[in-house]
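Dear H.,

Thanks for agreeing to be a second pair of eyes. The structure we're designing against is below in token form, covering all 241 positions.
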């Protein structure tokens, strides 16, 4: 069964999924084995790798080290075409559908094709929706797009549905890495109610309570990055039963 089929099955069975996001610019390769000892004791089901930038081209060496350390699926979550490596298992083929910048709607995607058509990566079309998290985040800066205000629930839901109607297989509601305010419960609930495809939620989730709220509101998969970078003891709160 491939990565996407597993996500669909989990959604059908109402099994919640947690992805740990590793930013290659912030992860010391030496620390990967000990980091993964904690990951494996936790409820983590997926590993995402990516960041808004990767100036030192660290994605590939970091992915190689991660693949040595774990059997969990490793999925690229690239900020741009430079961050694609064949060493991962899959890639979120993101289109920033909340923005109006053609570079991140289609241009980076076209540039990725010569690489992807010759790779074994599982390509998962994903509609990426940036929502205001009360802080200007790297996604906003790098993509030069405006997030959707977190009060504009209809626009958020319509954007997510436009993604589904265009054939995206996942929708990712993103408050931005390190967001002060994560995507709100009512936004998640309303989007979930109207969407048929699986829903990913991330950005600014730092506590078990916030994770539980996101799951209970309808997120099928939650992504957490910064909270683990700041405090690996957070894994203690997320131990497998
Ligand atoms: C960012 O949604 C992810 O793209 C995770 O955000 O780093 O705030 O957990 P955090």
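And this is the sequence the design step returned. I haven't edited it by hand at all.
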């Amino acid at each position: 069964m491939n990565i996407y089929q597993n996500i669909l099955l989990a959604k059908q069975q109402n099994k919640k999924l947690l992805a740990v996001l590793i930013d290659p610019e912030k992860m010391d390769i030496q620390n990967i084995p000990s980091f993964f000892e904690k990951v494996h004791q936790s409820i983590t089901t997926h590993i995402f790798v990516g960041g808004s930038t990767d100036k030192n081209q660290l994605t590939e060496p970091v992915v190689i080290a991660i693949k040595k350390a774990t059997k969990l699926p490793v999925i690229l979550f690239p900020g741009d075409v430079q961050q694609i490596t064949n060493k991962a298992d899959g890639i979120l083929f993101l289109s920033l559908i909340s923005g109006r910048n053609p570079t991140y709607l289609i241009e980076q995607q076209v540039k990725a094709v010569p690489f992807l058509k010759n790779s074994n990566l599982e390509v998962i079309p994903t509609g990426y929706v940036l929502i205001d998290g009360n802080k200007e985040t790297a996604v906003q800066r790098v993509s030069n797009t405006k997030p959707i205000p977190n009060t504009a629930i209809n626009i958020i839901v319509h954007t997510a549905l436009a993604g589904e109607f265009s054939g995206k297989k996942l929708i990712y509601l993103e408050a931005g890495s390190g967001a002060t305010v994560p995507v709100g419960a009512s936004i998640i609930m309303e989007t979930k109610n109207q969407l048929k495809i699986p829903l990913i939620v991330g950005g600014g989730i730092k506590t078990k309570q916030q994770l539980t709220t996101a799951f209970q509101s309808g997120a099928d998969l939650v992504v957490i990055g910064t909270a683990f970078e700041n405090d690996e003891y957070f894994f203690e709160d997320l131990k497998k039963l």
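Two observations from my side: DSSP finds ten helices and eight strands in the chain. The radius of gyration is 16 Å.

Warmly,
E.
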